[in-house]
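The freezer alarm interrupted the setup, so I double-checked each line after restarting. Inputs confirmed:
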Amino acid sequence: MRARRERALAVAQRLGADGVLAADVSTVAWLTGFETDIESGPSPFALPPLAVVTPDGPPLLVVSEDDAPRIPDDCRACLYAGGTVEELDPVGGAIRALELATDGRMLASEPSFLSTTLASVLRIVDATAELRLVRAVKDPDEIDLLQAAVELCDVGQAEARAHVLPGISEIELWARVRGAMEQAAGGRIPVLADLASGPRTAETGGAPGLRVLTDGDLVICDLVPRLQGYWGDSCATLEVGEPAASARSKHRLVADALERGIEAVRPGVVAGDLDQLVRAGLDYPHHTGHGLGTSWHEEPRVVPGGRTRLEPGMALALEPGVYDGDGGVRLEQVVVVTEGGCTILSNHSLEL
Amino acid sequence: MRARRERALAVAQRLGADGVLAADVSTVAWLTGFETDIESGPSPFALPPLAVVTPDGPPLLVVSEDDAPRIPDDCRACLYAGGTVEELDPVGGAIRALELATDGRMLASEPSFLSTTLASVLRIVDATAELRLVRAVKDPDEIDLLQAAVELCDVGQAEARAHVLPGISEIELWARVRGAMEQAAGGRIPVLADLASGPRTAETGGAPGLRVLTDGDLVICDLVPRLQGYWGDSCATLEVGEPAASARSKHRLVADALERGIEAVRPGVVAGDLDQLVRAGLDYPHHTGHGLGTSWHEEPRVVPGGRTRLEPGMALALEPGVYDGDGGVRLEQVVVVTEGGCTILSNHSLEL
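Predicted 3D structure, all chains:
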């Protein structure tokens, strides 16, 4: 944690600021380990969490009292009233707590994530782009957290594969997959997902619905769980029953593209060149890949023309696909860039 | 929809504004029917949705192209690029779309939900409190939507009751409950929940974990699903095996308090008086109830000293409880205030 706080403070210093005011919940998690509850949406009791990081003391979280039990050990907090039977005033509370936490300092921040009502007590400089870039390089403890999140993906993929049978609906399959992942996590976790069968695989996927699987269907299963603040990601494409020849040939193209990409990942490679290499001969309407960490899509974005240069410690998901009228196939693994190439964190079956 | 848009525009007019700029996702849903994806947290591709409502034309949503398929029929949109393989600039895109949508008008808005980066193109007056109050009175089509959301609660409660047996873990029970609700909804839905057994019921509940149910456990099951933008809410307390005498007596106290409250609900009743009536003789550390609609906690808040006066069309959840060292019991139903009293939307079993 100390290494990334120092990288963030170096950004602040370059911009003439005394510290960092993290406002994106992903940056808050990255600098403090504080995991924001996202599944309930905006809260009537609190503003989104903020974190102040300065060279002279532990990080200060600006959160409501409801979050007090979840404040990481090495952080302090400026708390305000949360859910209460008293009159609610989360904005007033957050403003007063933020004034205490920032103490008039000039801070490098992420203004698009800050509420206009907080502006009056803030002196900030926009560091959004710079913080995004330093967030892309993971510390060793972050790689461990990503590995744990990707292992949850493996659990979900195995469960999907075990139950992808004629007669089950997408939403039933989803309940099993999510159930297995939450069982493995020991509690509820956010999970984004494509779980789409048949015709919708041709459109790259979608959320699970009531469609019932039948023999010959392709099923795209793309699972994105968050565990301890870090997002995993993986995709497999399954076939209900025996794979058709056309599915096998698409699957081979995609597996080859993914392998090509993973073999090419090493420090110094430019994201746009990696995109071009993987995309060669294929025609998928989405990115080739993306970074992931405390957010599910971050630098390095592996897209046409992407200028980010890979560095050791960067984590990325690669996910080429082939989609045509017959249906679609996508495969995805997460890798971490090492000095000599990369390490694959994903361990799910890529078979059709 | 027209009735509530007119109420919102009347608020704007009272404040000297030309229209409304909804920024709270709950207000956006209320005025347009647009349902925001909350389960993925803040998006790297878009700012939260905004809606401009003026007297001269349909509502204008300011959202990314990714949301285009979900724009309600009677709304128009100012779109900006969303998830793309191009360079990302959701803030720039949102600013330009918002400039087009607002066209220099003075608008009644919710500044704490607005990003500071949008401030430069906005002329707004703070209408947060006023909009919250008018949102509390539901139109007939909103009552139908609430009824549908509460019926999903009924489905979940029935599933919990069917499987609350020794040997099942909280998280396994949760997978069944959520699975049944999503099956009934036809797809994924956000669901907030307490699903806690044994000792944690004494602390009012909590999220499901790995604890395995055993004979004699109390289980608090409080389910809060969102369907088509509207939140349902209900709570039952279940006993694993035969209820103990102490559990029966707590349950009787809570059932009586809930009944007392529901019998008292009618236009003109002040929320704080309702709180006092239900809370009499009990000692629970939370609100007696709350409004619900496009948010899961809104006016009328039924809390000590609450000043909101009930009106026909207000929807509220009442949820008294008793918690002691032995465990806790809470029961909750949703009602809608009518001219002569109230209608109960909930239809789940309140039995122990």
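Quick read of the result. The first helix of chain B runs from residue 2 to 14.
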